[in-house]
Amino acid sequence: MDNESIFWRDLSNPPLKLDRGKGVYLFDEAGNKYLDAASGAAVCSLGSGNSEIAQTLKEQAKELSYAHMSKFYSQALADWTDQLISVSPDNLTKVHPVSGGSEANETAIKLARKYHLERGNSKKYKIISRATSYHGATLTALSLSGKTSRQEEYAPMMSPNPKISPAYCYRCPYNRDPDKCSLECASDLERAIVQEGESTIAGFIAEPVSGSSAPGVHPPDRYWGKIREICDEYGVLLIVDEVMSGMGRTGKWWAIEHSNVEPDIISTSKGLGGGYVPLGAIIVHDNIHKAVKDGEGSMHHGFTYGGNPVCAAVGSKIIQIMEREGLVGRAASMGERLLQSLRDSLGDHPYVGEIRGRGLLIGLEFVKDRTTKEPFEKSLNLPRRLRQSCLNHGLYVYPGGSPVNGQKTTQTMIAPPFIIEEGHIEEIVNSLLKSIGEVFD
User: What are the residues facing 352 on neighbouring strands?
Assistant: First the structure.
């Protein structure tokens, strides 16, 4: 720690100082090389050091670097939103730009409330979410999260929101077989709506494929069909949080597309800016936009850097590169290979409970006992120890997990850039094998 002016996120464990990045690799100031197997935090989908993106950033900054959306916009913003709509579900036709995932979820929540106000449903204000989830660091987004380790210190400041069972088949709260179950975890949404009072529920928010709270967890595709039916029956907006899972990471542009269900709002970020610029958005169903347009005609909400021309230009370039290089399909195929390789190498390990995921959003969950699925004791601090061991072996992974029955779970997210090759998969697996052996055995 050579810079005392920085208020570190973790004061007891300051980060490594990076010097540069190229492709799937990061290099620290001592020259050590790390394979970025988490894309930072599922952000750097195209890897580091892309000269085409850097040139786009430079050119736009010279032309127009800022335009406040209260009165101005840019051609860069118009081009990017058109491109984003072109790869989005058919009836989601409007984009509201922000700077990050927490902002996107805050905006989606407020828009859900605004929509119901415009339709004369002034009592609808509650947002239902799921346990074992994470939706952001801002107070409202954190209130909707089901990651208690992040919430405890701020609990008195957060608004209460109803939560339903997680769609977490490995730790199914109903002890059901996911191939034969009656989707009790989806039916729990109806229970919560009725219990809270259907006239008060504005929306339901959930991740199609979970990120940091339970990396790689996703329900059977039929789950979302039932969720859509319940939302429609009770006049509840379906908000899918694709901050991590969106922009091609699961092998489709949007993870919700695996289930052939159309949401009302998609909130997204991370891969939009690819680690080159801070960029986020909500993508909105035409019906919601029409309700606001035909009503008051405005939404009293906005962020300073929403619609920034430089960020928008980079967002456009990222979509262009992804389409040109077929990177969404590549995320699907390379994800299948990586998942299979991990299962082949680690599937029988005595402390590996489950290896799951979709595309290049994969999670490993470690347990003390494979039969009981008992987590390791928190005092062992295994997530930090495993992450450090991986770094020692030239691999960067992202720790994840939420408490189960009061015990912190040990989970790891593997979400490399879409540009990985076969050799990188072998490198990821080999380094993981060494680190897991070092920490657990």
Answer: 366
User: Do 311 and 232 reside in the same domain of the chain?
Assistant: yes
The answer to whether 315 touches 131, Cβ cutoff 8 Å, is no
Structural domain ending residue among the three candidates 293, 325, 357: 325
Q: Measured between alpha carbons, how far is 31 from 28 in angstroms, rounded to an integer?
A: 5
**Are 240 and 263 in the same domain?**
yes
* Identity of the residue numbered 39: S
Do 35 and 69 reside in the same domain of the chain? no
Give, for all 441 residues of the chain, the pLDDT tens digit: 456 899 988 888 889 999 999 999 999 999 999 999 999 999 999 999 999 999 999 999 999 999 999 999 999 999 999 999 999 999 999 999 999 999 999 999 999 999 999 999 999 999 999 999 999 999 999 999 987 778 888 888 988 889 999 999 999 999 999 989 999 999 999 999 999 999 999 999 999 999 999 999 999 999 999 999 999 999 999 999 999 999 999 999 999 999 999 999 999 999 999 999 999 999 999 999 999 999 999 998 999 999 999 999 999 999 999 999 999 999 999 999 999 999 999 999 999 999 999 999 999 999 999 999 999 998 898 988 999 999 999 999 999 988 776 778 999 999 999 999 999 999 999 999 999 999 987
Element (H, E) at 410: strand 410-414
Residue 1 in any domain: the answer is no
Range of the domain at 175: 53-325
Structure tokens at 150: 């992040």
Domains: count for the chain: 2
Q: Which of 325, 346, 367 is the last residue of a domain?
A: 325
Global pTM value: 0.96
Q: Judge if 218 and 80 occupy the same domain.
A: yes
Give me the sign of the Cα torsion angle 202, 207, 213, 214: positive
